[in-house]
Design a protein that fits this description.
single chain; Alpha-Beta Plaits; about 15% strand
């Protein structure tokens, strides 16, 4: 089982798309094991987007991500990091394929609705930025046998 950090970004909250997007992860069979609404501070933004802080688009990204609440989640599942990235589609909603979350709901490079960790290293670094260990509620869903065979 893998874990990944998801952020429903301010555009997702403001556009009332939280439910639609959480539904897609649930319908796919992923486990939501942590969830909270919060305001990203400029300090947290710089930690989260450390690799982008020196890029020309960073000031606009920081003002966007701190401009309204976000919802942070941890999703758990088999190969969940790759599967979620594929569900999101390309970074820009203008380039994301139809049928992906960004392809269906976003027409922007910055306002692309959802962040997801891009690898195991990123998820191990990002999850503790948003959740303390006791805030993660691991459980075994009773429906698991109807989502995957026992040897998968
Ligand atoms: P995310 O997957 O959260 O990772 C970094 C974020 O920066 C990205 O989604 C976009 O919201 C934003 N971003 C990436 N590239 C650009 C860009 N060229 N111009 C503006 N924003 C960008």
């Amino acid at each position: 089982m893998e874990r990944t950090l998801i952020l429903l970004k301010p555009d997702c909250i403001e556009r009332r798309l939280m439910g639609a997007i959480v539904s897609r992860f649930e319908q796919k069979g992923m486990n939501v094991i942590a969830l909270k609404m919060l305001r990203v501070t400029p300090e947290l933004s710089k930690q989260h987007y450390a690799e982008h802080v020196t890029k020309p688009f960073y000031p606009a990204l920081e003002s966007f991500i701190t401009g309204a609440p976000v919802v942070a989640m941890v999703l758990e599942g088999l190969e969940v990091i790759r599967v979620v990235r594929e569900m999101l589609g390309a970074t820009s909603g203008l380039k994301a394929a139809a049928g992906t979350i960004r392809g269906d709901y976003s027409c922007s490079r910055q306002m692309n609705l959802v962040h997801a960790s891009d690898g195991a290293e990123a998820s191990a670094r990002e999850i503790p930025l948003y959740f303390k260990p006791h805030e993660i509620c691991e459980y075994t869903p009773t429906l698991r046998p109807w989502f995957q065979a026992s040897d998968e």
